[in-house]
Amino acid sequence: MDQRPHERRGHVGARTALIHFRPAHKDDGEALAIMVRWANDPAIRHLFRPFTDQQHAARPKTLVSAASDLASAMESGRQMYFIELDGAVVGEVNLVMNPPHLHEPLGETAWFGIVIGEEEARGKGIGAEAIRFIEEVARGEGAIWAQIGVFEFNERARRLYENLGYHEIARKADATWWKGKLWTDIRMQKQLQVPQPT
Ligand SMILES: CC(C)(COP(=O)(O)OP(=O)(O)OC[C@H]1O[C@@H](n2cnc3c(N)ncnc32)[C@H](O)[C@@H]1OP(=O)(O)O)[C@@H](O)C(=O)NCCC(=O)NCCS
After folding, report:
1. How far apart are CA 87 and CA 65, in angstroms?
2. Is any ligand 1 atom within 6 A of the Cβ of residue 156?
3. pLDDT at 8 over 50
4. Domain locations along the chain
5. How many angstroms does the Cα of residue 159 sit away from the middle of ligand 1?
6. How many angstroms separate the CA atoms of 47 and 54, rounded?
7. Does 47 contact ligand 1 (Cβ within 6 A)?
8. What's domain 7-191's architecture?
9. pTM here?
10. In angstroms, how far is CA 24 from the centroid of its own chain?
11. Nearest CA to ligand 1 atom 27
12. Per-residue confidence (pLDDT) for residue 7, from 0 to 100
């Protein structure tokens, strides 16, 4: 397929479209403002941000704290890509290799995060294309395994990961506060490639 490495042609609802993955840089103020809007969107904020308690969950994300989170994430080796459809940012997907919070890694392991922040972009296959894209990036980084965490109430994300070949490997209790109680984080894993003999 003659696709550039940061582009994928995929099904978006009923049409085929080019989805572009733009590497993030920490001074991208416009994209940062969009991420802050998603981080404060009551429809999705609880699905991708862990909260320790009610006070934490009630605190809005500010541009300043988002900028500092982004800078420290990138300094710690996280690779982030803005997902663009028809020139507009609709989501973000990221990867970090071998972070300390992995569950019992079996070898080189990538950890993924994803948000399709714009409502009209959800449920059209963009999330699936984004995971396929970040899996390719991870293979290029030498990842044999990928792990993802999904809160137990996020059934849509869980179904997506299952459809893409991920299976549950562990449950971390009391991972996030939502609707008056603490909920479990389900850890899922997939083998991305066979290790090369050394
Ligand atoms: C969870 C999330 C990443 C999934 O991404 P998405 O783009 O909405 O997901 P997809 O469209 O790829 O797949 C989800 C559903 O759409 C369906 N779908 C896939 N391709 C489709 C297409 N071409 N047309 C219409 N629907 C499609 C899938 O079958 C799936 O349906 P199902 O829920 O009945 O199984 C996204 O909804 C999101 O970011 N949500 C908010 C934040 C979040 O939950 N992040 C994940 C934290 S773990």
Report:
1. 26
2. yes
3. yes
4. 7-191
5. 8
6. 15
7. yes
8. 3-Layer(aba) Sandwich (3.40)
9. 0.93
10. 13
11. 124
12. 85
